[in-house]
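Could someone model zinc ion with this protein?
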Amino acid sequence: MSDLVPVQRVETRTEHFQCSCSHEAHTIRFEYHPWDKDKELYLSVFLHHWLSIPKRIWYALKYVFGYTCPYGHWDVWCMRKEDAFRLRGLLDAYIAECGLVVENGVVKEPAAILKP
Ligand SMILES: [Zn+2]
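Reply:
Sure, complex below.
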């Protein structure tokens, strides 16, 4: 009998979600690495708009001279209804992987992943 313990291979989980408007530039990506000790869930937002050269120069000049938009730079992504269960599945797997539980409305996590 071997003393070797089989290694369970845990893959990175990545899910892409398109915006309900179906524009390919409106895409978000969730990704987490189950083996990562910090157990962080990453969200990448791709909201890219190609601008003409004059508009890029105009925005660059505004940036150089310190112009800031009072509302920040925001865009929107609207989840397609058919993706709701896939997103919930991703989050359920993430919650299970992190060992998170809710007690009296407060999310508790194992001491091993608590940050100082
Ligand atoms: Zn959109």
